[in-house]
Design a protein that fits this description.
three-stranded antiparallel β-sheet; mainly alpha
């Protein structure tokens, strides 16, 4: 159960809480956490979700620093499948990061925390995006532009997560929000094979496409990303050992 603290229940916070519950009830995917019941007409505000057993990608990274290639592909492909369902429903997740991807003991991945989910194309203030989201994973256009963003921004964030799962570090770092935003906008990500020469070249190139500054140069849909990652999973099945 997710409960909204009554002290924090400002009108804006309640509206976002209701929107989060609505997103969880709208999207139908085994890779997006569902909302089973909602009580949001009056305090106490809460909604119920299934209990997940396992840990987040963030917790896994903290424990072992990186994933095997095959496991990284497996988690990323399932996450992309969840994003495809959200985008099909007209919603962006808008906060794809390791702590919002839950991996069960059986390897099943689920997108969680739909607090920032919003309709695709909805206007949003860039400062609010930086404050509410996590700047390390925000697409350039999501952090710095008042132009409308779409599902390709989620795909950029997934690219950052996949980069981190493969090599145990972020593509961009900075001592401040401003430095991070500038890095995402102007710096090329490090080449994965220069960090780990054992990584397959085609996977590295795909991650590089996900991290392209221009949305038009990225994969154009989450479904396309699912198909490409599934192809990689099959090709590199022998690397499945954790």
């Amino acid at each position: 159960v997710k409960l909204l603290d009554e002290v924090a229940a400002t009108p804006d916070r309640v509206a976002r809480f209701v929107a989060e519950a609505g997103a969880g009830r709208t999207v139908c995917s085994m890779h997006v956490v569902p909302v089973l019941a909602v009580h949001c007409r009056r305090a106490p505000y809460y909604f119920a979700m299934p209990r997940l057993i396992g840990g987040t990608v963030a917790e896994e990274l903290a424990g072992r620093r990186r994933f095997s290639v095959a496991m990284a592909l497996h988690v990323a492909r399932q996450t992309a499948s969840g994003l495809a369902a959200m985008h099909q429903a007209g919603l962006m997740h808008a906060d794809v990061r390791p702590s919002n991807i839950f991996v069960g003991r059986d390897g099943h991945a689920t997108l969680i925390d739909l607090e920032h989910a919003r309709p695709i194309g909805a206007d949003a203030d860039p400062l609010a995006r930086c404050v509410r989201g996590t700047v390390e994973y925000l697409a350039p256009e999501a952090a710095c532009s008042r132009h409308r963003v779409d599902g390709r921004s989620d795909l950029y964030s997934l690219g950052v997560v996949l980069f981190e799962m493969l090599v145990g570090r972020l593509p961009f770092e900075g001592a401040s929000v401003e430095e991070l935003v500038a890095a995402h906008n102007s710096q090329d990500p490090p080449r994965l094979r220069e960090i780990d020469s054992s990584l397959p070249a085609d996977i590295c190139e795909f991650v590089r496409r996900l991290l392209h500054k221009q949305p038009l140069r990225r994969p154009q849909s989450a479904a396309e990303v699912v198909d490409e990652l599934a192809r990689f999973e099959i090709a590199y099945l022998e690397l499945r050992a954790a």
